[in-house]
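Take a record.
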Amino acid sequence: MAVLVSKIARFDYPKEWPELFSILVQQLQSADILTTHRVYMVLHRTLKELSTKRLTADQRNFAEITSQLFDYAWHHWRSDVQTILQEFSATVQSSIGTVFSVERQQTLQLTCERWLLCLKTLQRMIVSGFQSDAKNIQEVPPVKEVCPSLLQAVQSLLQYRSVFHEGHNFHPFIVKACLKLMKVLIAIQNAHPYSFSSQYVLPPILEFCYKKITDPEVYVVSFDRFLIQCMILFKSVLECKEYKSSNTGRVVGDTVITLEQAKNNIAREAEDVLKLLMVSERVVLLCNVLIRRYFIFTSTDLEEWDEDPEGFHHEQDMIQWIEKLRPCAEALYLTLFENYRQILAPVVVDILKEAMGNCPAAEVDITPRMLLKEAAYGAVGVSHYELSNYLSFKAWFEGALLPELHNTHSNGHIIHRRVALILGQWVSEIKGEIRKPVYCALLGLLQDKDLAVKLASCRSLCSLMEDVQFYEEDFVEYVPACLDMCFETMQNVQEFDSKVQILNLISVIIDRLGEKILPCADKLMQFFPQVWDESSGESLLRIQVILAVQNFVVALGRQSPMAYNMLLPILQFSTDINSPDELNLLEDGVLLWEATLNHAPSMVPQLLDLFPNLIAIMEKSFEHLPVAMKIIECYILLGGVNFLHLHSAGVAKVLDAVVGNVNDKGMLSTLPVIEILVQCFPGDAPPLLGGILQKLIIVFIGGGDESNPSKAAIRASAGAILARLLVQNSSYFAHLTTQSSVSTLLQHAGMKVDQNILLCLVDAWLDKVDNVTIIPRKAYALALCILLTLREPQILEKLDQIISVCTSILMCDIDLNGSEESSYEGLHSIENNEDVVSSAAEETKEFRKRQVKSSDPIKNMSLAHVLKENLQACASLHGDAAFNAAMSRLHPTVLGQLQEFLKT
């Protein structure tokens, strides 16, 4: 019922249900404990629901609810805690402990439950019912009033944990109450840090946490979850940015205190409180306790490790730091180290030296000395960044870590795992001549019998290879052995995370080694199909296989066809929309497909047969549109006429579905494919793309892109395609523009055209010529030159603009002697140099694109020659008188430039 009321209140309060909280307040005044218990359950659920609404009006409503309810809840909470403590005291003083009647025990149980609900309600109101003082630095009065009482309550209740042992009726309540009280204090500190920094709040609470962590009573030592909450609160205070003042001062004579200055003043007060509490001796003591007590493996930890090394590794590696005591202690230690590095760095180094001195590398028994050394190693590992100036990694590695690996006793796995982790944590200090010994050490650890050690080594090797200081020539000699060990480990592990970790290492090795992985290609081509088959039904694992195979294809480059027997079945399955794993594999499958085509030296029938998968993908959705367009582009460049003859209908179907039905980003990724089709197949492609080209005419002459850069780019690209079509296939262009369907499209688009559509295109090309790059500009100019031969007299009105565009392009050296031509001179030299061709062909797709650009008819045509021919034709069509009249409107400078160019 409480949940139902909360869901209704989210939508109906306050407009449709304004009396909700008035009714609840009335019910709170009831003397019946069961009634008030139920009211607090409704309040807790409802306030929890309403607190998630973030609009200003909703937050204002919540503040009003808080002002209405807070006093009632606070009164009930204080009354209940006194009742609970009195009853517990009476129970303890009783010699038997069961002297209460059943009814009295039930009433106490109900009171305890109501008290907890009331506490949750108070937390919700304090945290969400007041704006955070970190924003407006206005004190939140309930913080000062409530927090000391919460601390007193947790101190009182905690003592009863030693009385109400596990199995007692009230033991679960004591545990739940102590944890909830600490969580409320943490939530209040996070929400209202400035109010929490009061001398009546922060010092006693921080002191309480400090003592529980460093010197816990017997009833607290085994209460791990409570110690975790103490550490979380302590850590939250130490890293709270509101408690760190800045050094900026005030302007002399300025009497107005700004918000930032006021925050700084409060931060200084909080800093002073922390300085008094955290003197050097206490900081050192806390650091020692964390390392010597909380970092140490317990007997339970060691048993779990022995029973399931693989599971133990992942639990240590992936568990949230707030869930277990040791990770939480590590997090607090790191925060403490960051705040007091100069004090703690020498202390940690001394602990390390002491631990190494008391436990030599040859130690074989699992003793407290060995466990302390493991803990000291762990402390140095996690604080590597802060300790790098205080400890020479080279000396430590050669003098201590390397000798540890010579201990082959079965108990050596405890230190071996830690050494493996350290080598991954200190990666920034592993450089130069020390790299190879570290590689050897990790490869040795990768052969360890313990899976936890193997997986730790695997992760550290991955970190080393992803480091900027990794050089493949230093590692290439170890690659065969490393891969063999990875393959072997893959056979021995069971958990998904382990397999992913190993696959990730293999993928990184391939990626970093590049073509140097070729000697191991046969092993990898046997490994990938095996893992693929074994991971049937495990989509997430197959994704990792696809990613590794993609890196492998890229590394093989032009030699990738040697892997097709392994690759193509994976590609077929991962791009099949009818496969059961389509939802998970398709995205990575199409990326693998693109990589395969990018590095294919030639088209093969199997790749051609795969193209229908792309059509099916695009028919289903446009989610993978950018990659799909790149794949089509690869097929055009690689497959040529053969591809077009086989799949022209499919290509046209996909492009027709896309153009006009996707957003601007999708259009910009699609238009280059249409242009390359027109360029490479000027005779065959335009008839296939007729409907698409008509849409582009509408887009180009439609305008409306003045304030939208994306639409302006789309218009410019559409204009370039149409210009290219006119230049390379004038007859089809004429046929296209005279079709009645174009007029129909114009009408549907709401566009009224009062003149010949070709004149509309002339206007659009003149308008967009300055918005395109060099080759499209030349295409625009050539198209304008050709349209000078229109029989429409209006063309003469635009003659001066057309000539001005052409001369400006000629002046910019775009023709045979221009800068764009110069940029292509390298391409001609590449074609004449076999060595360079071989090098460039490593990226097959890019090389073919350059070849297409190099042979582009637009680039190779002489604009001056075309302009001269079409000016003569224009004069013949319209008569010398009309033509000369139009020419007379030319600016003298433009006319002079024109005459100069026409002489050549």
